[in-house]
Design goal:
This is E3 ubiquitin-protein ligase. The chain is about 60% helix and about 5% strand. The protein is an all-alpha fold. A two-stranded antiparallel sheet has the order 1-2. A hairpin with a 3-residue loop joins strand 1 and strand 2. The N and C termini lie far apart (about 55 Å). About 30% of the residues are buried.
Length: about 450
């Protein structure tokens, strides 16, 4: 076990030699120390003089402290958070239904179905051999990892009792893939496409394992905190948080896999029906995309010449491309199809109206000012970043009366794009536009 926990190959070879030939003599050990100290003394001295070196490496070592997936995250706390969101969203659902359709039965039934999670807690506390094989995958070499992937596919796909294992271990596997894996191309999480594209498995993990919420929570935590730490902050606080595009998470491309898994799940017909029927899924998805609303806002430089332009906008647009695809797919869940009968069309229309009003409520509650604190900026590395411009919400904007000849007067937001921050990233508006197309 110790052989695989050592940090470098040189140390591993030295330990292997010690095991086979016995411990080194004191004279040999002193000779090695004398030759190595003179070579590394100058380098160590320069490294100690650099404060940024220690800040960067302290965080990197904290993230890669172990070469196995983390088992210490509290699923009970995460499940309790989901249940609280389900209760709140059921109340909002009933309030909207009472005002528009004079009905509240649907929201209560949905809430009762979500809150029964005692069996799910017991399932997560029980660990199988298959679970430990997944979690210790990082310690294995390439050939074994590829062979185990084939074993998992043959085990998980045909047998119903093992189908939930991918959803059960997704958070720990995502943590290992995004932050710890030295060979991400061999990660177990990459074979999820062969499972999540199966309708029965996708429906099972979403309805019984909160898989959609887990993906949203993993992505939210990764972009806000530069790590995977669950449960995340409360939803009321998360709604006012914005990501910082200069964070380390934006420079990584590994998050593409999580967005692909989200799209695979949303594209399943049975999951589309669950999204329409369950208001919690819309709430969780809005909680994800609202962090990227108006990110990377820029102010026009009118009096100064920009000699070197930052490439932060490239990382921001890479994330935006993934979010835009997900927003279009999520909005298509509410679209009526030719095979739908009259009753299904009526239910989809009601769900569509509630979804549109729910986004309007997010807009009315949105207050984004320069005084809010970013969660990612609490880290040591974030203290060196420059503060990003903010765009205030509807309640914080200044309004004025605009008169147009022939059409009358309009009360609009007073905003000058030449002097105030402007952003190209508006996922909430993209989701609203997709819903209005239906």
């Amino acid at each position: 076990r110790d052989l695989w926990t050592l940090p470098t190959n040189a140390h591993r070879r030295r330990l292997a030699a010690a095991i086979s030939t016995g411990p080194e003599s004191d004279s040999d050990h002193q000779h090695d120390n004398h030759s190595s100290n003179s070579e590394s003394a100058d380098l160590s001295r320069r490294q100690r003089q650099s404060s940024s070196y220690y800040r960067a490496n302290s965080k990197r070592n904290a993230l890669k402290r172990y070469d196995i997936a983390d088992l210490n995250w509290d699923y009970n706390a995460l499940l309790n958070q989901y249940n609280e969101l389900a209760e709140e969203e059921a109340l909002v659902h009933d309030e909207m239904s009472a005002k528009i359709f004079k009905s509240t039965a649907v929201g209560k039934k949905v809430a009762e179905g979500i809150l029964s999670g005692s069996k799910l807690r017991q399932e997560y506390e029980r660990k199988l051999r298959l679970d430990y094989l997944m979690l210790f995958d990082l310690r294995l070499w390439k050939e074994v990892r590829l062979a185990l992937r084939q074993l998992f596919i043959s085990s998980l796909a045909p047998r119903p009792d093992f189908k939930k294992q991918i959803g059960k271990n997704y958070v720990t596997l995502a943590d290992a893939f995004l932050l710890r894996d030295r060979e991400p191309e061999n990660s177990i999480i990459l074979f999820s496409v062969q499972l999540l594209t199966v309708p029965t498995i996708a429906s099972l993990v979403v309805n019984e394992c909160h898989f959609l919420g887990q993906i949203c929570s993993v992505l939210s935590s990764f972009f806000l905190t530069d790590c995977v730490s669950l449960p995340l902050i409360t939803d009321s606080k998360q709604g006012s948080m914005r990501v910082n595009c200069e964070a380390r998470s934006f420079r990584s491309r590994r998050y593409f896999s999580a967005f692909h898994d989200l799209r695979y799940i949303i594209n399943t017909e049975s999951v589309k029906e669950s999204i329409i029927r369950e208001p919690l899924y819309l709430r969780q998805y809005i909680g994800l995309i609202i962090m990227f609303q108006d990110m990377n806002a820029l102010v026009r430089q009118a009096d100064t010449h920009i000699e070197y332009e930052s490439e932060t906008w490239v990382n921001a647009f890479n994330v935006t491309l993934q979010i835009a695809k997900c927003c279009r797919q999520f909005a298509e869940c509410y679209a009526a199809t030719a095979s739908d009968n009259e009753a299904i069309r009526v239910d989809k229309s009601k769900a569509l109206v509630r979804a549109i009003l729910r986004i309007f409520k997010v807009f009315s509650d949105w207050v984004a000012t320069d005084t809010e604190n970013e969660l990612a900026d609490s880290t040591e590395l974030a203290k060196e970043r420059l503060p990003q411009p903010r765009i205030a919400g509807i309640q914080e904007q200044e309004y004025h009366n605009l008169h147009l000849n022939g059409t009358g007067s309009y009360w609009i937001i007073k905003y000058d794009v030449a002097t105030q921050p402007v952003s190209f990233h508006h996922p909430l508006h993209w989701l609203l536009a997709g819903l209005l197309e239906n």
